[in-house]
Amino acid sequence: MPYIYDYPRPSVATDIIVCTVAKPHHILLIQRKNPPYEHMWALPGGFMDINERLHDTAKRELFEETGINAEQLNFFGVYDDIFRDPRGRTIGVVYYLLLQNFIKLHANDDAKDAQWYNIENLPPLAFDHSLIINDFKQKILTYC
Q: How far is the C-alpha of 115 from the C-alpha of 124, rounded, in Å?
């Protein structure tokens, strides 16, 4: 069924924070294969398909980009800065997963690479992912 609207609509995407509980905390980042921010590091994530629920989008994107099959992801927050994505108006819903140990990673799909980084020593990040990670450190990791 076609959809026709007289007003612009935003895209919806998910981002997933995967972080180790043990200190020093490490966070999973993917290296982007495609523009925008080609070759830069980012949180795993991507756009929601029309036939998906948000939680399913997050699980799919995490698996496609890193090989991690997560049954349960926790809701973290919504990021809706008007200019957060140069491709257009995008609302990001962020989920997280805390792990006891590192998991072996397999970069796939539109991820060129996937690596664990010490959360206190991150490379420059794409989009608003530095803001998201800083919020996560304050709101979640403070209690770990």
A: 14
Output the pLDDT for position 8. Answer: 85
**What's the one-letter identity of residue 105?**
L
Domain ranges of the chain: 11-143
Q: Which of 100, 95, 103 is nearest to 144 (CA)?
A: 100
What letter represents residue 96's amino acid?
Y
- Please give the CATH number for the structural domain made up of 11-143: 3.90.79.10
Assign 3-class secondary structure to the chain. Answer: CCCCCCCCCCEEEEEEEEEECCCCCEEEEEEECCCCCCCCEECCEEECCCCCCHHHHHHHHHHHHHCCCCCCCEEEEEECCCCCCCCCCEEEEEEEEEECCCCCCCCCCCEEEEEEEECCCCCCECCCHHHHHHHHHHHCHHHC
The rounded distance, in Å, linking the Cα atoms of 71 and 56 is 9
Whole-prediction pTM value?
0.95
